[in-house]
């Protein structure tokens, strides 16, 4: 009997009885069903970034695909890992060992993603990351069964770090979330800054989901650095920016959110967030394709999607296309198709999955609009630069992943 930390839902369009499905499904589909599991933050500081929005995006992907692949129904399950690595690993193990889940997706937060990755590696099942950012997922902890799909800390450092340097922000102080993602983001940004003539004056680390950011921001203010780099995300980023504004820090120092989502800008308002630089893989209002999909998403969620949610849709669609092309849900065959097939949809053009699992795509540096520049709801960004994939992500020669090393 299946137990869930969160909820489980079968695609509504799979109407036939389970016994009949198992009898009629082609034998190349394991147990007659293709099961997709989402490991998410449903109720904490990243819930608005992944949570129900990622579930909705996944449902849309399955529906748009037709609800079946190779004659077998597609089933979606999801669980709340509560931002705890041990719970993420336990749920991944239960899904892969007992519940016959074929692929795990999203896995918001880096610590939980690293824990789930090890389980997927042991069980030889595919795992796709849209939510977490740590480059370790395709570097020190790279795996032949994993795909890091949407963004990573290296890309954020290149985009926002270098963008701030170009506008005169050559001295930095970091306010960093004290876990894998924050540590990696601070390190990657520090490397970019130093390589381009910048200087780091210091840093301070705060606990995940901190309730009071004042002491950390005051230390940053005392450093007199031109830029306060926020190596955190979600509610921690929002609280940091609000505190900096309340204390008047933004009058003399710039605050750079190294991972900022459109949800964060919406929560802060343009009056607070105006002028901020941020790096994204997706913006809903970039072109007719992004607008068309995003408006469909908005009809369900009553808010625009962020890059994690759009990436969840795209990665699941790419996986299902690979299953269809491979004629099986076997891990090796599907991964081979995923890596050999270019990705072209509203989320990415000419994307490809590198041997280390890094999905190579261009990234975008945006500036948050002034209130007077916004023409309609959710009209928040203006494009400052497009960063080519080879520049946005860690080059193979810098990686320690053995999958990138020639024999």
TL;DR?
About 40% of the residues lie in helices and about 20% in strands. With about 400 residues, it is an alpha/beta fold.
Overall strand count = 16
- CATH H-tier superfamily of the largest domain: Response regulator
Quaternary organisation of the protein chains: single chain
DSSP strand content: 15-25%
CATH architecture of the largest domain: 3-Layer(aba) Sandwich
What is CATH's topology name of the largest domain?
Rossmann fold
Mean pLDDT equals 93
Q: Structural class of the helices, strands and pairings?
A: alpha/beta
Number of domains: 2
Tell me, briefly, the overall form.
Answer: globular
Polypeptide structure, described:
The protein folds into two domains: 8-151 and 289-360, Response regulator (Rossmann fold), CATH 3.40.50; 154-280 and 363-394, Response regulator (Rossmann fold). It has helices at 18-24, 51-65, 85-97, 110-123, 153-166, 180-195, 214-223, 234-246, 262-268, 270-273, 288-301, 307-326, 331-340, 389-392, and strands at residues 8-10, 34-40, 68-69, 72-80, 103-106, 126-129, 146-148, 171-177, 199-206, 227-231, 254-257, 277-280, 352-353, 359-360, 363-368, 381-387. 40% of the residues lie in helices and 19% in strands. β3 (68-69) and β4 (72-80) form a beta hairpin. The strands form four sheets. Strands 1, 2, 3, 4, 5, 6 and 7 form a seven-stranded mixed beta sheet that branches. A four-stranded parallel beta sheet has the order 9-8-10-11, sandwiched between helices. The protein has a three-stranded antiparallel beta sheet with strand order 12-15-16. The protein starts with 7 loop residues before the first strand and ends in a 15-residue tail after the last helix. The protein has 407 residues and is of the alpha/beta class. α2 (51-65) packs parallel to α12 (307-326) and α5 (153-166) crosses α6. It is globular and about 65 Å long. The protein is built from 14 helices and 16 strands.
């Amino acid at each position: 009997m299946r137990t869930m930390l969160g909820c489980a839902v079968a695609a509504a369009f799979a109407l036939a009885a389970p016994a009949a499905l198992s009898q009629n499904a082609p034998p190349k589909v394991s147990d007659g069903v293709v099961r997709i599991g989402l490991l998410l933050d449903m109720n904490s500081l990243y819930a608005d970034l992944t949570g129900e929005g990622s579930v909705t995006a996944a449902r849309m992907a399955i529906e748009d695909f037709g609800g079946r692949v190779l004659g077998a129904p597609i089933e979606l399950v999801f669980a709340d890992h509560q931002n705890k690595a041990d719970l993420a690993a336990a749920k991944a193990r239960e899904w892969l060992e007992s519940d016959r889940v074929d692929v795990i997706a999203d896995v918001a937060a880096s610590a939980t993603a690293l824990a789930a990755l090890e389980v997927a590696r042991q069980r030889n099942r595919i795992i796709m990351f849209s939510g977490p950012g740590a480059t370790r997922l395709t570097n020190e902890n790279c795996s032949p069964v994993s795909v890091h799909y949407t963004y990573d800390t290296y890309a954020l450092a290149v985009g926002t770090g270098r963008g701030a340097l170009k506008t005169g922000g050559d001295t930095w102080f970091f306010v960093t979330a004290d876990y894998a993602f924050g540590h990696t983001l601070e390190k990657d940004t520090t490397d970019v800054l130093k390589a381009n003539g910048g200087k780091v004056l210091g840093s301070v680390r705060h606990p995940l989901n901190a309730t009071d950011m004042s002491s950390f921001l005051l230390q940053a203010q005392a450093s007199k650095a031109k830029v306060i780099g926020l190596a955190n995300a979600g509610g921690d980023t929002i609280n940091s920016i609000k505190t900096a504004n309340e204390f008047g820090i933004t009058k003399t120092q710039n605050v750079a959110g190294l991972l900022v989502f459109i949800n964060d800008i919406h929560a802060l308002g343009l009056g607070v967030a105006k002028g901020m630089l941020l790096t994204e893989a997706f913006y809903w209002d970039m072109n007719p394709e992004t607008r068309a999909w995003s408006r469909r998403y908005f009809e369900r969620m009553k808010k625009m999607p962020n890059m994690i949610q759009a990436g969840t849709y795209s990665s699941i669609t790419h996986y299902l296309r690979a299953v269809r092309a491979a004629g099986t849900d076997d891990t090796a065959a599907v991964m081979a198709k995923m890596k050999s097939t270019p990705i072209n949809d509203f989320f990415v053009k000419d994307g490809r999955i590198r041997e280390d699992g890094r999905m190579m795509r261009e990234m975008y540096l945006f500036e948050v609009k002034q209130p007077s520049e916004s023409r309609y709801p959710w009209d928040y960004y203006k494009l400052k630069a497009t960063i080519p994939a080879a520049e946005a992500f860690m080059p193979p020669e810098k990686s320690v992943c053995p999958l990138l090393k020639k024999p």
